[in-house]
């Protein structure tokens, strides 16, 4: 179906975008459009104006910024996935991006658009929850920066005022903390078909000491009801060397922690998969963490 | 189109030819190509960005043309399936069919290896495959499957499509020894030698017969 009528308003600077959002009533930002365009075609979204920010070149970058990797809001998924600083220092994010939709969609979809949409089944959310990058936004009152933890309010809901746009994020580099000898991370996704949204997904970061014991574990589960940080599972694995019993306990704690939207067998299945993929993610992250010690 | 419909004038180079056209703001690139430029090789399938039939190259990068507005591509370069043979000619690797048509090696690969049946999805597969081979001239099976995971085919299944791409990669690598070249096929399942497929016994399809090319290349 054709989208309903709208006026296309291309802008090529952040200032012009902010001005356009002030000027036009009922305007939506068009970044990559890989979620918005289908929503328009199915008439779930019918804005009168599309402020097209795809041409803002100043937001299309990925830079090494010392202790963090800075990502411009209009960097495409493919651009981020392949950027050397991301591959070297936040491989978790690169790994996650490789599982988003498919190649043509990743070529057009952008970081900022995905973060702003905050789809609970999207692949970014669990990874960003445990990375906790700073998100910078610009609006009529200037610039502000908030940690992702505060920025993400719930499914499809973020701390973004009318007239604001996301300009960049700082992804902290994954380096072992002072009491750790190694760090490893991974993103595991369970979907019905290649390219689908996750039925259950788990992001994990594990730090270990010289003896191979876990000093710190961060976990986040996506796709199973609200984005979940299973803190009990995290503390269960800390201080252990992640043997099978500990993995099973962590999985049980995750099954307890998630709140699937579906009732009955479908919900049970998602709970079970959240547990299973937690075990797989912890194992892989632990293997990667202990590789270097 | 009503008078009040917002429009944009776009200048776009498609397959090397420049077009200047006024288009409705809400017109998707796939409709622009098909209806305004008459380039009907690009197909619209699922409409929601899942099937990949509408894949074209946008400044050299594969994208789904049902997920882009024509107004967004002002000043850019688009390559569609109609441009593939010209690219092959420009690069000096064009191939001729028996009836004299010029094809890109990928197109020939799909033809020879049964990479298509109804052909509806084929333009999208070809464009994604072309972009893949631009980046990686010798992709392995997994890399091909991963690159093509955004393209859906409801006729052949995917093995023959993957074989088609492998065939073209070998052809482009200059492995043409008069038998289609078939190095790099770890499992030997790819029939590129003009013979019958011998794997899969009962499942083997005698229609896999290819053009005689003068010898058993294996």
Outline the structure in words:
- The complex is a heterodimer of chains A (293) and B (218).
- By secondary structure, chain A is α+β, with helices and mostly antiparallel strands.
- In chain A, 37% of the residues lie in helices and 25% in strands.
- Chain A contains 12 helices and 13 strands.
- Chain A has a 5-stranded antiparallel sheet with strand order 4-5-10-6-7.
- The termini of chain A are far apart.
- With 218 residues, chain B is of the alpha+beta class.
- Chain B is 27% helix and 14% strand.
- Chain B has a 5-stranded mixed sheet with strand order 2-1-5-3-4, with helices on both faces.
- In chain B, helix 3 packs across helix 6 (159-172).
- The radius of gyration of chain B is 19 Å and the shape is globular.
- Classes of the chains: A alpha+beta (293), B alpha+beta (218).
- At the A-B interface, strand 1, helix 2 and helix 6 of A face strand 4 of B.
Compile the SSE list and pairings.
The complex is a heterodimer of chains A (293) and B (218).
Chain A: E1 7-10, H1 14-23, E2 27-30, H2 36-41, E3 49-52, E4 62-65, E5 68-72, H3 77-82, H4 84-89, H5 91-97, H6 103-108, H7 111-117, H8 124-131, E6 134-139, E7 142-147, H9 148-151, E8 152-154, E9 157-158, E10 165-172, E11 182-190, E12 200-208, E13 214-222, H10 231-237, H11 244-257, H12 264-291
Helix pairs in contact in A: 10-11, 11-12
Chain B: E1 7-14, E2 17-24, H1 29-36, E3 55-58, E4 61-64, E5 77-79, H2 84-91, E6 95-96, E7 102-103, H3 105-112, H4 122-135, H5 141-147, H6 159-172
Parallel strand pairs in B: 1-5
Antiparallel strand pairs in B: 1-2, 3-4, 3-5, 6-7
Binned strand content of chain A:
15-25%
In which range does the helix fraction of chain B lie? 25-40%
The largest sheet of chain A, given as strand count, sense and whether it forms a barrel, is: 5 strands, antiparallel
What Rg of chain A do the Cα atoms give?
20 Å
> What is the strand arrangement across the widest sheet of chain A?
4-5-10-6-7
Radius of gyration of chain B: 19 Å
Shape of chain B: globular
What's the count of strands of chain A? 13
Secondary-structure-based class of chain A equals alpha+beta
Detail the poorly predicted runs of chain A: none
Could you tell me the number of beta strands of chain B?
7
Write the element-wise H/E pattern of chain A from the N-terminal end onward: EHEHEEEHHHHHHEEHEEEEEEHHH
For the record, give the distance between the C-alpha atoms at the N and C termini of chain A, rounded to a whole number.
Answer: 56 Å
Q: CA-to-CA gap between the ends of chain B?
A: 60 Å
- Strand pairing plus helix content of chain B: what structural class? alpha+beta
**Averaged pLDDT of chain B:** 85
Number of helices of chain B: 6
Biggest sheet of chain B: strands side by side, in what order? Answer: 2-1-5-3-4
